[in-house]
Design goal:
GO terms for molecular function: methyltransferase activity. This is S-adenosyl-L-methionine-dependent methyltransferase. InterPro entries: Methyltransf_25 (IPR041698), SAM-dependent_MTases_sf (IPR029063). With about 260 residues, this protein is of the alpha/beta class. Helices cover about 35% and strands about 15% of the residues. The protein has a single domain, classed as Vaccinia Virus protein VP39 (Rossmann fold), CATH 3.40.50.150. A hairpin with a 2-residue loop joins strand 1 and strand 2.
């Protein structure tokens, strides 16, 4: 049987000339482009935000705003532990802003940030030696033995997990948390005061779209219930920090509105 080579369609070939091209090659199957933004290409994850440089910049601004408002890296009474020698886990670390900052402040302790997207991790020359990063999908569990960590921190994951996944994650946190360890959740409230009709319409539609994807943006109201269902956790404290939104709030209000 003979074949006609002229009828065979030409295939596009990706050539890899440098490290940047190789990184792009590796991301072809892990990410997808939608309306010019890069998203995780994972049917198992519910994360609804992009995963690109623009999102990292937004994450950096969000982190800076929280630090300005909180005036501290954590509310849990763990400073003395961190000054000695503690193991700390940051769940959903993103670009690693929090875990790197705290790692710099407490060089005697060991810190590890985990996230489903390792492309956002800082390079080795941009974090101290006591800070490490691991790619993992927390919906499959936390890949560490029981009673590993003295302090578990996670923030701004309301867009990443369903309610059932949140509940299961709290159980996993309890498993890897040491006796007399601490866990801290930092989540936002989608509602804001005096939002007006247009603001209310926008928030309600955002909540509805998220709900269709299985995401509850009001998860901060559910976390205390998840914690209360675990007999191993006690001494629950709840802090509410308000922030301005809009030009009336000065420079901070302008940044928050972005």
């Amino acid at each position: 049987m003979m074949s006609n080579k002229d009828n065979i369609p030409k295939q596009k070939v990706l050539t890899i000339d440098d490290d940047n091209d190789f990184e792009t090659f590796l991301q072809l199957n892990t990410h997808r482009i939608l309306n010019g933004r890069k998203f995780l290409n994972d049917n198992e994850t519910k994360y609804i935000l992009p995963s690109d440089k623009k999102e990292i910049n937004r994450e950096a601004m969000s982190y800076s705003i929280r630090q300005h408002l909180f005036q501290k890296h954590f509310f849990s009474p763990v400073e003395e532990k961190l000054k000695m020698r503690a193991n700390v886990l940051d769940i959903g670390c993103g670009a690693g802003f929090w875990v790197v900052d705290v790692g710099l402040d407490y060089p005697s302790s060991s810190f590890i940030g985990i996230d489903i997207d390792s492309t956002r991790f800082p390079s080795n020359d941009r974090h101290p030696p006591n800070v490490g990063f691991l790619e993992c999908n927390i919906t499959h569990g936390i890949p560490f033995p029981p009673e590993t960590f003295d302090f578990v921190h996670m923030s701004m994951l309301c867009c990443a997990l369903t309610e059932s996944q949140w509940h299961q994650l709290v159980k996993e946190i309890v498993r890897v948390l040491k006796f007399e360890g601490w866990v801290e959740f930092v989540e936002g409230d989608p509602w804001f005061k005096n939002c007006g009709k247009l603001g209310k319409f926008m928030i309600e539609n955002t909540l509805e779209v998220s709900k269709k994807k299985g995401i509850n943006l009001n998860i901060h109201t559910m976390i205390p219930k998840f914690i209360g269902s675990m007999n191993e956790l006690r001494d629950l404290e709840y802090f509410n920090v308000e922030y301005p939104l809009g030009e009336w709030g000065g420079c901070l209000g302008k940044y928050v509105s972005k």
